[in-house]
Amino acid sequence: MAESISSIKAWTYSEYGNAVDVLKFDTNVALPDVKDDQVLIKVAAASLNPIDYKRLNGLFKASDSPLPTAPGYDVSGVVVKVGSEVKKFKVGDEVYGDINEKALEYPKVIGSLAEYTTAEEKVLALKPENLSFAEAASLPLAIETAYEGLERVGFSAGKSILVLGGAGGVGTHVIQLAKHVFGASKVAATSSTKKLELLSKLGADLAIDYTKENFEDLPEKFDVVFDTVGETEKAFKAQKEGGKVVTIVPPGVPPAILFILTSTGAILEKLKPYLETGKVKPVLDPNTPFPFSQALEAFSYLQTGRVTGKLVIHPIP
Known about the structure:
Blueprint: E1 7-12, H1 19-22, E2 24-30, E3 38-48, H2 50-56, E4 74-82, E5 94-98, E6 116-120, E7 124-126, H3 133-137, H4 140-152, E8 160-164, H5 169-181, E9 186-191, H6 196-202, E10 206-209, E11 222-227, H7 232-235, E12 239-247, E13 257-258, H8 265-277, H9 295-302, E14 311-313
Parallel strand pairs: 8-9, 8-11, 9-10, 11-12, 12-13
Antiparallel strand pairs: 1-2, 3-4, 3-6, 3-14, 4-5, 5-7
Helix pairs in contact: 4-5
């Protein structure tokens, strides 16, 4: 099947700038080569992350892959070809993952906004059967980032946590993982007024409306503050003595722990039982999925910063 294909459709950009100006629909992109440790995936769905437009805007030119490139980190789809060293997957398997192991170091030239993409075996996992392709595509980068952040601060049962930006892609998963996987004693999270109910549904014991309250002025302090929005300095005021702050937004003022995700399918495999039982759920923005033809609209919406959970593009033809 994949053998007879030489060119594919993809959204690509040849220069840096805003998506609406530089992202173009290309019907004649070369099919990427499959290395020995990779599989070729027929893409069913992709999800967008803030890193996609930051990369498009040229914020990490020095270590970017050569242009033209197709954006997209998160993918779900079907394996159509396997490299000679691949052991975990076979043709026909439904898989998902964040295809770029190091987010900022030479990401794939053909990302997930394409009919086909390649990924190393180690960054992928089998898609839980109860999840649609759109739901699966929403998970990898966000849920892995949430998990890695909790691991980095040594989060464990009985600890309390405050999540800044609880309704975003990463925040929705920090709430769920802290509560349902790690066994937090208390989960607090911030959002705008409209999204408070979602925070409670996901497992937050305390939902804080940041338009009406300053979290740093609350009398209650927390073992961990997980900052997904770039408010590290204020976060220090909300931590208990001996508590920790972890952030995913540079520059990240020390002693906060700043990290950039290393993508691995191992986290997805570890979380599979929680996803299959519905203890941990994908959170898709009500405006998604966007069809493949509306990638520009999807990017414009992503850049408003008003997305709830994740923004998904599905189906990809």
